[in-house]
Amino acid sequence: MVARFDEIVETKVDARWTDSCQGVAWTGSHWVFTSNENGSRRIVTFDRDADLLDEQIVSSVLITQELLGPGLTLHHVGAPFHHEGRVYIDHFDDTHSHALVFRVGPDGSLAYERWFTLDRVDPGTRLNILAIHPWDRTMYMVADDIPEKATLWIHDMDGHFTGTTFPLAPPIADSGYAQGGCFTPNGHLYIASGRTGPKRQNIYCYSALNGRRLGLIGVDTPAEGEELEGICYADVTRKGQRAQIHGVVLANHLRAKDGIFFKSFAATEPELV
């Protein structure tokens, strides 16, 4: 069985750090967000109960070419994923995909560690990080430039393809981008599919055992320019209400800085998440 969800908390944030926000991760004590705004790409952390204002940032690191060093060209910073005291950020340039790795302390402090290249499966397909499996210590990759997401590729934590794939049945075929995903304690894989345009976008739930789709969470995006971004799992209380799945909806603005809606979804039966 799979849980049914209701959106219970929505925090609207329009701050300097929210421009081109790519998603959220949870460390066990802090929220982690990334931004891809040209000239101010960054990773930031907040305490659990923060209103996500600029002055409440616990730690912030600008992601620059100088920080990363030679060997890749800083281009697109994607969603963050937390695993064992580190945050892995999806990145791609004109030639390859990469993981940018930051250490994150119990106090939410951030320190850049390294980057590494993600193996391609074939020369014409760019892979992006979709989720990190917390028990197998593997990264699940998706070919986001392919409209129908039918297969995931499993890499080790250094970016090497393991030779194993993971089917999605049925595939995700809503023309969205696979913005990020998360595994949950019951062995479910939640995948956010978003793009500007639709008035309702989806978080799909699949079995981590066999890739069978179990359900979905509909995310209302009624305003022009709204786009569902990366998500995470965290069984926490926000604004006095318990929730398990959390995600970012980016409010794209052409002539102003982007804001976000930080949304939390509560399962009617949390033990089924």
> Helicity level, as a percent range?
under 10%
> Helical element count?
1
Measured by DSSP, the beta-strand proportion falls in: over 45%
The secondary-structure class comes to mainly beta
Distance between the termini: 9 Å
What's the rounded overall pLDDT mean?
A: 94
Q: Spell the H/E element sequence.
A: EEEEEHEEEEEEEEEEEEEEE
Major β-sheet profile: 4 strands, antiparallel
What does the radius of gyration come to?
17 Å
CATH topology: Tachylectin-2, Chain A
Number of domains: 1
Structure summarized in a few sentences:
The protein contains one helix and 20 strands. By secondary structure, it is mainly β.
Describe the structure in your own words.
1% of the residues lie in helices and 57% in strands. It is an all-beta fold. It has a single domain, classed as Tachylectin-2, Chain A (5 Propeller). The strands form five sheets. It has a four-stranded antiparallel β-sheet with strand order 1-20-19-18, with no helix packed on it. The longest helix is centred in the N-terminal third of the chain and has 4 residues. The chain is globular and about 50 Å long.
Index terms:
mainly beta, 57% strand, 273 residues, single chain, four-stranded antiparallel sheet
